[in-house]
Amino acid sequence: MITYLKGKITEKNPAYIVVETAGGVAYMVHISLTTFTQVKDLEEVKIFTHYIIKEDAHALYGFFEEQERSVFQQFISISGIGANTARMMLSSLSVKELAGAIMAGNVSTIQAIKGIGTKTAQRIIIELKDKIGKISDVEKSENFSIVYNNNKKEALSALSLLGFSKSSAENALDKIIKSEGMDLTVEELIKHALKIL
């Protein structure tokens, strides 16, 4: 099992990074927006990983913090929640926000995440309420401002990689920019878009 990777980031976007290790082997690592926020200005990284093997694909998921990996692993242990849904949850809310919603039994907050219905939200709360409290608080990472056009472009690219059609993603981003203004970061744009797509 691959526990973590340490190396140079040779490619990065809000959906995945490519990490080249000392041996010259490069790994594609699927990430959440939380992790992207923490690695986007780094050239080298130590990324904690979770390796998933299926009949049709092998995928490596990466996390900047061990707490995020722990929450991801707890999510995918729940029946009906796959890796992509777990990543969507960690992209829509921070570990701290998710832990708070689960501990408070806040079904509506969890249900607001794309792909999570009422029954699944209730199941997450029931199964994780006692476990999630053990996760320590994750410090809020800084938001770095990027030029507006680049923000929209990066957000659109990430939403496309998450499986949304380019046209519907672009329409959602335009609506958000119209109502919220042009000062939103890439992560904020994507989070808002995930709520309406």
Shape call: globular
Quote the distance from N terminus to C terminus: 35 Å
CATH architecture name of the largest domain: Orthogonal Bundle
What portion of residues is helical? 40-55%
Q: Encode the helix/strand succession as letters.
A: EEEHEEHHHHHHHH
How many structurally independent domains? 3
Mind summarizing the main beta sheet? Answer: 5 strands, antiparallel
Number of helices, counting only DSSP H or I runs of 4 residues or more: 9
Structural class computed from helices and strand pairing: alpha+beta
Low-confidence stretches: 136-148
Q: How many distinct beta strands?
A: 5
pLDDT average, as an integer? 86
SS strand fraction:
15-25%
Radius of gyration, taken over Cα atoms and rounded to an integer in Å: 17 Å
The CATH superfamily of the largest domain bears the name 5' to 3' exonuclease, C-terminal subdomain
Q: If you consult CATH, what is the topology of the largest domain?
A: DNA polymerase, domain 1
CATH class of the largest domain: Mainly Alpha
State the strand order across the main sheet: 3-2-1-4-5
